[in-house]
């Protein structure tokens, strides 16, 4: 995905959960980071479910303001049971 730095919009992240698990009831967080390491706790932002995808608002006036550059998008879903699924979900370019 490629967006301009001046844009404020929802970042949508598709998620495939374990079979039989209703993800809409599971807490979800998204991190957008410029480094290649796993996100640290302060980089995670709350997200919400919309149309089967996780989403969070990014851009000016939000908790995730991005300068021009390349970013890794991460998602973390706390599904019922012992699992907490954390995955790198994609790439975001900001112009």
What attributes characterize this protein structure?
95 residues; mainly beta; Immunoglobulin-like; three-stranded antiparallel β-sheet
Q: Report mean pLDDT, rounded to a whole number.
A: 93
CATH topology: Immunoglobulin-like
Oligomeric state of this protein: single chain
> What's the number of structural domains?
1
Distance between the termini: 11 Å
Give the proportion of residues in helices: under 10%
- Biggest sheet statistics: 5 strands, mixed
Strand order of the largest sheet: 1-8-7-3-4
CATH class: Mainly Beta
Strand content: over 45%
**Computed CA radius of gyration, to the nearest angstrom:** 13 Å
Q: Could you give the count of β-strands?
A: 8
Inertia-based shape = globular
Number of helices: 0
Examine the secondary-structure arrangement and name the CATH architecture: Sandwich
Describe this structure in words.
This protein is mainly beta and 95 residues long. The protein has a single domain (2-94), classed as Immunoglobulin-like (Sandwich). It contains no helices and eight strands. It has strands at residues 2-3, 9-14, 28-33, 44-46, 48-50, 53-58, 69-77, 85-94. The strands form two sheets. A five-stranded mixed sheet has the order 1-8-7-3-4, with no helix packed on it. A three-stranded antiparallel sheet has the order 2-6-5, with no helix packed on it. A hairpin with a 2-residue loop joins β5 and β6 (53-58). The radius of gyration is 13 Å and the shape is globular. The chain starts with a strand and ends with a strand.
């Amino acid at each position: 995905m490629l967006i301009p730095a001046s844009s404020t919009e929802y970042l949508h992240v598709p998620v495939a959960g374990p079979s039989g698990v209703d993800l809409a009831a599971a807490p979800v967080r998204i991190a957008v980071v410029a480094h290649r390491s796993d996100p640290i706790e302060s980089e995670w932002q709350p997200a919400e479910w919309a149309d089967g995808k996780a989403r969070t608002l990014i851009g000016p006036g939000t908790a995730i303001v991005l300068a021009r550059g390349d970013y890794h998008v991460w998602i973390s879903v706390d599904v019922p049971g012992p699992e907490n699924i954390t995955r790198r979900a994609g790439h975001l370019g900001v112009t």
